[in-house]
Amino acid sequence: MEIVDVNASDADVESESDDEDETLAPQMKNHSPLSQQQEGNLHPKDLLTVGCLKVTPEEHNSIDEMMIPFKGGFSGIKQYVKGKHHKWVFKNWARAGQSVMLYDFDVYQGSGDNRSNKSGLEVAADVVLKLTSTLPDNNNFKVYADNFFTGLPLIEELQKHSIHYVGTARSNRVYNCSLQSDSDLQKGGRGSYERITTLWQ
Protein backbone atom coordinates (compact mmCIF):
# COMPACT_ATOMS: atom_id res chain seq x y z
CA MET A 1 0.00 0.00 0.00
CA GLU A 2 1.42 3.41 -0.94
CA ILE A 3 1.31 6.11 1.73
CA VAL A 4 1.45 9.71 0.50
CA ASP A 5 1.35 12.90 2.56
CA VAL A 6 -0.78 15.35 0.56
CA ASN A 7 0.96 18.28 2.26
CA ALA A 8 4.51 17.09 1.47
CA SER A 9 6.59 18.37 -1.40
CA ASP A 10 7.87 16.09 -4.17
CA ALA A 11 11.32 16.22 -2.61
CA ASP A 12 9.95 15.11 0.77
CA VAL A 13 8.11 12.18 -0.76
CA GLU A 14 11.15 11.02 -2.73
CA SER A 15 13.37 11.19 0.35
CA GLU A 16 11.24 8.74 2.34
CA SER A 17 12.99 5.39 2.59
CA ASP A 18 11.49 1.94 2.19
CA ASP A 19 12.19 1.32 5.87
CA GLU A 20 9.97 4.24 6.87
CA ASP A 21 7.16 2.89 4.70
CA GLU A 22 7.45 -0.49 6.41
CA THR A 23 7.14 1.08 9.87
CA LEU A 24 3.99 2.93 8.83
CA ALA A 25 2.32 0.02 7.06
CA PRO A 26 1.39 -2.01 10.18
CA GLN A 27 -0.54 1.01 11.48
CA MET A 28 -2.89 1.01 8.48
CA LYS A 29 -6.30 -0.56 9.10
CA ASN A 30 -9.00 -1.56 6.64
CA HIS A 31 -12.44 -1.02 8.18
CA SER A 32 -14.43 -1.79 5.03
CA PRO A 33 -16.90 -4.72 5.16
CA LEU A 34 -15.24 -8.10 4.91
CA SER A 35 -17.03 -8.89 1.64
CA GLN A 36 -15.19 -5.96 0.02
CA GLN A 37 -11.76 -7.00 1.27
CA GLN A 38 -9.39 -9.44 -0.36
CA GLU A 39 -10.35 -13.09 -0.12
CA GLY A 40 -7.05 -13.80 1.62
CA ASN A 41 -8.44 -12.40 4.88
CA LEU A 42 -10.42 -15.60 5.43
CA HIS A 43 -7.89 -17.99 3.95
CA PRO A 44 -7.39 -19.90 7.25
CA LYS A 45 -11.17 -20.28 7.52
CA ASP A 46 -11.34 -21.72 4.01
CA LEU A 47 -8.64 -24.26 4.86
CA LEU A 48 -10.56 -25.31 7.97
CA THR A 49 -13.79 -25.65 5.99
CA VAL A 50 -12.10 -27.87 3.41
CA GLY A 51 -10.80 -30.07 6.22
CA CYS A 52 -14.26 -30.36 7.80
CA LEU A 53 -15.87 -31.32 4.50
CA LYS A 54 -13.41 -34.17 4.00
CA VAL A 55 -15.00 -36.02 6.93
CA THR A 56 -17.94 -38.31 6.06
CA PRO A 57 -21.04 -36.68 7.60
CA GLU A 58 -23.28 -38.45 10.09
CA GLU A 59 -26.94 -39.12 9.38
CA HIS A 60 -28.15 -36.72 12.10
CA ASN A 61 -26.98 -33.09 11.96
CA SER A 62 -27.73 -30.06 14.11
CA ILE A 63 -27.52 -26.46 12.89
CA ASP A 64 -27.07 -23.56 15.30
CA GLU A 65 -24.96 -20.50 15.99
CA MET A 66 -21.49 -20.89 17.48
CA MET A 67 -19.76 -18.11 19.43
CA ILE A 68 -15.96 -17.89 19.52
CA PRO A 69 -14.61 -15.43 22.14
CA PHE A 70 -12.29 -12.82 20.65
CA LYS A 71 -9.99 -10.24 22.25
CA GLY A 72 -7.96 -9.10 19.25
CA GLY A 73 -8.00 -5.74 17.54
CA PHE A 74 -9.34 -6.64 14.09
CA SER A 75 -12.92 -5.36 13.97
CA GLY A 76 -14.06 -6.46 10.52
CA ILE A 77 -16.26 -9.38 11.58
CA LYS A 78 -16.33 -9.47 15.38
CA GLN A 79 -19.76 -9.01 16.97
CA TYR A 80 -20.76 -7.41 20.27
CA VAL A 81 -22.99 -9.68 22.37
CA LYS A 82 -24.75 -7.87 25.20
CA GLY A 83 -25.10 -9.65 28.53
CA LYS A 84 -22.49 -12.33 27.84
CA HIS A 85 -19.29 -13.01 29.77
CA HIS A 86 -17.30 -12.60 26.56
CA LYS A 87 -18.62 -9.38 25.01
CA TRP A 88 -16.82 -9.66 21.67
CA VAL A 89 -17.05 -12.82 19.61
CA PHE A 90 -16.78 -14.27 16.16
CA LYS A 91 -20.29 -15.47 15.37
CA ASN A 92 -20.53 -18.55 13.18
CA TRP A 93 -23.33 -20.66 11.77
CA ALA A 94 -22.38 -24.29 12.25
CA ARG A 95 -23.51 -27.80 11.27
CA ALA A 96 -22.39 -30.57 13.61
CA GLY A 97 -23.20 -34.26 14.04
CA GLN A 98 -24.35 -36.31 17.03
CA SER A 99 -20.71 -36.83 17.94
CA VAL A 100 -20.31 -33.02 18.17
CA MET A 101 -18.00 -33.22 15.15
CA LEU A 102 -18.08 -29.95 13.18
CA TYR A 103 -18.82 -30.65 9.51
CA ASP A 104 -19.41 -27.21 8.04
CA PHE A 105 -19.61 -23.61 9.18
CA ASP A 106 -19.95 -20.07 7.89
CA VAL A 107 -18.71 -16.84 9.47
CA TYR A 108 -21.44 -14.28 10.18
CA GLN A 109 -20.41 -10.92 8.73
CA GLY A 110 -23.21 -8.71 10.02
CA SER A 111 -26.52 -7.52 8.61
CA GLY A 112 -24.76 -6.07 5.56
CA ASP A 113 -23.54 -9.47 4.39
CA ASN A 114 -24.39 -9.50 0.69
CA ARG A 115 -24.36 -13.30 0.60
CA SER A 116 -27.65 -13.45 2.50
CA ASN A 117 -31.14 -14.11 1.14
CA LYS A 118 -30.04 -15.65 -2.15
CA SER A 119 -32.82 -18.25 -2.25
CA GLY A 120 -35.71 -15.82 -1.82
CA LEU A 121 -36.50 -17.31 1.60
CA GLU A 122 -35.75 -15.71 4.96
CA VAL A 123 -32.11 -15.09 5.86
CA ALA A 124 -32.21 -17.74 8.61
CA ALA A 125 -33.47 -20.30 6.08
CA ASP A 126 -30.60 -19.42 3.77
CA VAL A 127 -28.18 -20.34 6.55
CA VAL A 128 -29.64 -23.85 6.70
CA LEU A 129 -29.66 -24.21 2.92
CA LYS A 130 -26.01 -23.17 2.66
CA LEU A 131 -24.84 -25.53 5.41
CA THR A 132 -26.84 -28.45 3.99
CA SER A 133 -25.72 -27.78 0.41
CA THR A 134 -22.51 -29.66 1.23
CA LEU A 135 -24.48 -32.80 2.13
CA PRO A 136 -24.86 -35.38 -0.67
CA ASP A 137 -28.38 -35.44 -2.16
CA ASN A 138 -30.82 -38.31 -1.69
CA ASN A 139 -29.18 -39.81 1.39
CA ASN A 140 -32.05 -39.09 3.82
CA PHE A 141 -30.01 -36.92 6.18
CA LYS A 142 -31.83 -35.60 9.25
CA VAL A 143 -31.33 -31.95 10.24
CA TYR A 144 -32.37 -30.37 13.56
CA ALA A 145 -32.61 -26.65 14.38
CA ASP A 146 -34.45 -24.25 16.67
CA ASN A 147 -37.24 -21.78 15.91
CA PHE A 148 -34.86 -19.11 14.61
CA PHE A 149 -34.37 -21.15 11.44
CA THR A 150 -37.61 -23.13 11.08
CA GLY A 151 -40.21 -22.32 8.44
CA LEU A 152 -42.41 -24.33 6.08
CA PRO A 153 -40.76 -22.98 2.87
CA LEU A 154 -37.39 -24.16 4.21
CA ILE A 155 -38.74 -27.64 4.95
CA GLU A 156 -40.21 -27.89 1.46
CA GLU A 157 -36.90 -26.85 -0.10
CA LEU A 158 -34.95 -29.43 1.91
CA GLN A 159 -37.41 -32.14 0.90
CA LYS A 160 -36.34 -31.62 -2.72
CA HIS A 161 -32.93 -32.97 -1.69
CA SER A 162 -34.35 -35.78 0.49
CA ILE A 163 -33.21 -33.99 3.66
CA HIS A 164 -35.58 -34.43 6.60
CA TYR A 165 -36.01 -31.56 9.07
CA VAL A 166 -37.05 -31.43 12.73
CA GLY A 167 -37.40 -28.14 14.56
CA THR A 168 -39.52 -25.95 16.77
CA ALA A 169 -41.47 -23.26 14.93
CA ARG A 170 -42.64 -19.76 15.75
CA SER A 171 -46.39 -19.24 15.52
CA ASN A 172 -46.03 -16.49 12.90
CA ARG A 173 -44.28 -18.94 10.58
CA VAL A 174 -47.00 -21.59 10.68
CA TYR A 175 -49.66 -20.41 8.27
CA ASN A 176 -53.36 -21.41 8.19
CA CYS A 177 -52.99 -23.25 11.48
CA SER A 178 -55.87 -23.17 13.99
CA LEU A 179 -53.79 -23.65 17.13
CA GLN A 180 -54.68 -21.64 20.21
CA SER A 181 -52.86 -18.38 20.81
CA ASP A 182 -50.12 -18.28 23.45
CA SER A 183 -52.31 -16.22 25.78
CA ASP A 184 -55.20 -18.70 25.56
CA LEU A 185 -52.88 -21.64 26.13
CA GLN A 186 -51.42 -20.01 29.24
CA LYS A 187 -54.89 -19.82 30.78
CA GLY A 188 -54.92 -23.62 30.90
CA GLY A 189 -52.11 -23.62 33.44
CA ARG A 190 -48.80 -25.41 33.59
CA GLY A 191 -48.54 -28.46 31.32
CA SER A 192 -51.33 -27.39 28.96
CA TYR A 193 -50.84 -28.17 25.31
CA GLU A 194 -52.70 -28.51 22.02
CA ARG A 195 -51.82 -30.90 19.25
CA ILE A 196 -52.63 -31.01 15.55
CA THR A 197 -51.73 -33.92 13.30
CA THR A 198 -51.21 -33.35 9.59
CA LEU A 199 -51.02 -35.91 6.82
CA TRP A 200 -48.01 -34.91 4.72
CA GLN A 201 -48.74 -35.07 0.99
Automatic annotation (TrEMBL):
<dbReference type="InterPro" id="IPR029526">
    <property type="entry name" value="PGBD"/>
</dbReference>
<dbReference type="Pfam" id="PF13843">
    <property type="entry name" value="DDE_Tnp_1_7"/>
</dbReference>
<protein>
    <recommendedName>
        <fullName>PiggyBac transposable element-derived protein domain-containing protein</fullName>
    </recommendedName>
</protein>
<feature type="compositionally biased region" description="Acidic residues">
    <location>
        <begin position="11"/>
        <end position="23"/>
    </location>
</feature>
<feature type="region of interest" description="Disordered">
    <location>
        <begin position="1"/>
        <end position="26"/>
    </location>
</feature>
<feature type="domain" description="PiggyBac transposable element-derived protein">
    <location>
        <begin position="55"/>
        <end position="178"/>
    </location>
</feature>
